[in-house]
Write a structure and sequence with these properties.
The protein is an alpha/beta fold and 140 residues long. Helix content is 36%, strand content 16%. Strand 3, helix 3 and strand 4 form a beta-alpha-beta unit.
Length: 140
């Protein structure tokens, strides 16, 4: 069996988009990839990210928000920035890995009542799943 590839998803706060991407990759292709996530300015994992993923059958309740510095000594095969801010601020990661950018809108930035925000989290959750499936389904 081939060694699993390590993938790091980065966003600003590691509270929503990168957490959902980590959850999807581990859920869909965990036999081939070990996914991790981190943020430039970590905050608590957003309750609506947890709820939206749970609705889709992916449990990220045990996830915690991590700073990018936690992974400074880890060699990744791929580092993916999932927001424009992280792309600009992303530190250099040594090793054989390549860098990829795929920006998703920030569902936490949408003002309004909870049901409006949850709808935005569901939309971004589904966009991330579709992208993960396209990007990682047949890639090794």
């Amino acid at each position: 069996m081939a060694k699993k590839k390590k993938v790091l998803f980065l966003c600003t706060h590691n509270s929503a988009r990168s957490q959902m991407a980590e959850g999807w990759l581990n859920h869909l292709y965990g036999d081939r990839y070990d996914a991790f996530s981190a943020g430039m300015e970590p905050r608590e994992v957003h309750i609506y990210a947890i709820e939206a993923m749970k609705e889709a059958g992916v449990d990220i309740t045990s996830h915690r928000s991590k700073g990018v510095e936690e992974f400074a000594d880890t060699l990744f095969d791929l580092v993916v920035t999932v927001c424009d801010n992280a792309k600009e601020a992303c530190p250099y990661f040594p090793g054989p890995g390549r860098r990829l950018h795929q920006s998703f809108s920030d569902p936490a930035a949408l003002p309004g009542p909870g049901h409006v925000q949850l709808t935005a989290f569901r939309r971004v959750r589904d966009e991330i799943r579709e992208w993960v499936e396209r990007e990682f389904r047949d890639n090794d």
